[in-house]
Amino acid sequence: MTDSDDRQGEFRPDIPSPARVYNYILGGKDHYPADRVVAENTMAAIPSARDAALENRGFLRRAARYLAAEAGLRQFLDIGTGLPSNGQVHEVVQGIAPESRVVYVDNDPVVLAHGRDMLHGVDGTTILRHDLRDPDSILGDPELHRLLDFDRPVALLLVAVLHFVADSEDPDEVVRRLMKPLPPGSHLVISHGTDDGDDDVEKALEENYKTSSSAHVRTRPRVEAFFDDLELIEPGVVWTPIWRPDGASSPLFDDPARSVCYAGVARKP
User: Fold this and answer.
1) pLDDT mean over 56-62
2) Cβ pair 247, 234 in contact under 8 A
3) Burial class (CB in 10 A: 0-12, 13-18, 19+), 69
4) 3 state DSSP class of 79
5) Exposed e or buried b for every residue in 170-198, given b needs 16+ CB within 10 A?
6) Strands 155-159 and 75-79, how do they pair?
7) Comparing C-alpha atoms, which of 155, 237, 228, 246 is closest to residue 192?
8) Per the CATH hierarchy, to which homologous superfamily does domain 3-267 belong?
9) In the Cβ-directed half-sphere of 268, how many Cα atoms lie within 13 Å?
10) Taking a C-beta distance cutoff of 8 angstroms, is the pair 213, 4 a contact?
11) Whole-number Å distance between alpha carbons of 252 and 96
């Protein structure tokens, strides 16, 4: 177990948290000085960082809409949800189908506190404390099975979180283990950081290695491999701004590589 592993789940405002760094980049208010230092360094190294973060949130909302409105899913498991922002998964899918059920999972104590407050009184939702790198703990939680019926299709959302799982921690096995008990018709949603279009991303990650979870960029073929044995939904694995754009204004649409993030959705046959 590494030192960063020991810090997982502890409230340590002196140690930057990926969720709080992301919150600062998005213009939120739930962060501390240590988070702001990392965020500012990241934005200095990657000038498009704020737009890229907004594009990732836009992808999440479009994917959730697709799953609820077109694919007809009514059960959602969002792991690594991060701090609340506009257009959370339950807001999107319950706006389309009020009977939809959403389980959020995170291990950051600040995320959990804000998530529980956000979901208070919201039927069909909960937030659970688990680490993505321990899929058996997630799958074994009775509260998960109280809300989600694994005999019916489930959407598994891993949005901007797999890049915090090192190769040594076998992210492919993490994804396989999470998808294995889900029935046919279930879907997998992934967005993942990359340096394919921007060499400065690696420099920015030098700062992320000081946070409670280190980050690891991956290439497009490597991200596509997470969808092995699944049926990719058109347009496949692409830059976040060009995954089924909805006509909303996008500052990165003409230069999507500046989003430094790939995205895709696939169906389990």
Assistant:
1) 95
2) no
3) middle
4) strand
5) ebeebbeebbeebeeebbbbbbbbbbbbb
6) parallel
7) 237
8) Vaccinia Virus protein VP39 (3.40.50.150)
9) 21
10) yes
11) 28
* Amino acid letter, residue 153: P
Cβ atoms 207, 214 nearer than 8 A: no
pLDDT at position 189? 98
pLDDT, tens only, 208-238: 555 556 778 899 999 999 999 999 999 999 9
In tens, the pLDDT along 135-176 reads 999 999 999 999 999 999 999 999 999 998 999 999 999 999
Is it true that the peptide bond before 135 is cis, omega within 30 degrees of 0? no
What is the rounded CA–CA span in Å between residue 211 and residue 14?
10
Dihedral angle at the C-alpha atoms of 85, 134, 171, 165, nearest 10 degrees? Answer: 60
CA–CA separation, 246 and 43 (whole Å): 27
Report the DSSP beta bridge partners of residue 158. Answer: 190
Q: Is the distance from CB of 160 to CB of 134 less than 8 angstroms?
A: no
The domain spans of the chain are 3-267
For the chain, the residue count is 269
Lowest-pLDDT range of 59-63, 88-92, 106-110, 174-178 = 106-110
Note the pTM of the prediction, 2 decimals.
Answer: 0.89
